Amino acid sequence: MKKNVGSLLLLLFKGMLVGFGAILPGVSGGTLCAAFGMYEPVMNLMAHPINEVRKSGLCLLFFVSGAVFGFVGLAGAAAWLMELDCFAVIFVFVGLICGTLPELWSNAGKHGRGKGTYASLAVSFVLLSAVLWLLGRGGSVELEPDFKAYLLCGLLWGLSFTVPGLSSSTLIMFFGLYESMLDGISSFAPEVILPIAVGIALCFLLLPRLTQAAFSRHYAALSHGVIGIVLASTLAVIPFGEILTVRSGVIAFAYAAVGLAAARAFAAIERKISK
Fold first, then answer.
1. How far is C-alpha 6 from the geometric centre of its chain's CA atoms?
2. Which of 67, 74, 134, 163 lies most in the core, judged by the most C-beta atoms within 10 Å?
3. What's the pTM value of the predicted model, to 2 decimals?
4. Which domain holds residue 60?
5. How many domains does the chain have?
6. Do 74 and 16 form a contact (C-beta atoms < 8 A)?
7. Exposed e or buried b for every residue in 128-163, given b needs 16+ CB within 10 A?
8. 1 — pLDDT class (breaks 50, 70, 90)
9. Would you call 262 helix, strand, or coil by DSSP?
């Protein structure tokens, strides 16, 4: 019983980190799901909800509940932390993601590795890096904050959970909707939350079956591709222009070390619970 309770609480906390992290600019909800080993279970839940609930409903309930709370309940905290010390928040999450890479690598190789899997990792890394670089060079487009704009926010957020590496918050900032959206979520404004929920639901209804079918046929290649996406999106988050001095570099490393240590602690707890 203790092992079960411990694993469920760990899943709840992971879900909170995924939901909270998805709000932060540059961080992908799908990347965090993949980093915590929950990408496939969540996609399976969306593709075949009845079967997946029967199989691991309680675990998914705790993880999804944590993600919803992190996304909605901590939106105000995310805005406050980003305003207080954006630098620290970003590097802690960078360390957190890096700390999950050993498990990601191990899971990706459970069906073997070959030239094709390494090529998949390299291609996904290069392609996403190029896309993020091109987006970073562009200016911004201001959209009027209305139902259609927040529906777009929901669609982007749904995509960020189903497509690892896609940061919805970065794109939402590009459209000039980030601050008004965070304010609306933290104040539980229905005119903001409802269209976002509709957009997320549309993505969850339409995309997971395709994702699941692709993984069932090409698991090794796609799993290594996800690692490439995680690496590219993590590098894209790092504000290299702010760590040009020795002092700032050491501070950034210290923040990242905190995140990495937390991730390794989660992994150790998970191994202990699963024994």
1. 23
2. 67
3. 0.66
4. 2-274
5. 1
6. yes
7. bbeebeeeeeeeeeebebeeebbbbbbbbbbbbbbb
8. very low
9. helix
CB environment 222-250: b (16+ within 10 A), e (fewer): bbbbbbbbbbbbbebbeeeeebeeeeeee
Q: Over 87-144, what HEC string results?
A: HHHHHHHHHHHHCCHHHHHHHHCCCCCCHHHHHHHHHHHHHHHHHHHHHHHCCCCCCC
Contact status, residue 153 vs residue 176, Cβ threshold 8 Å: no
Return the structure tokens found at 63. Answer: 């993880």
Cα dihedral sign, 124-130-136-139: negative
Per the structure block, which two tokens stand in for 51?
A: 């079967």
Q: Any residues with CB less than 8 A from the CB of 134 and at least 6 apart, and which?
A: none
Written as one letter, the residue type at 233 is S
Tell me: the pLDDT tens digits for 33-45? 877 778 878 888 8
- The answer to whether 96 and 262 have CB atoms below 8 angstroms apart is yes
Give the span between the Cα atoms of 174 and 139, in whole angstroms: 7
* Helix intervals (H) in 138-217: 147-162, 168-174, 178-186, 190-206, 208-217
3-state helix, strand, coil in the chain (%, to 5): 85, 0, 15
- Whole-angstrom Cα distance, residue 166 to residue 160? 5
Residue 242 DSSP symbol: G
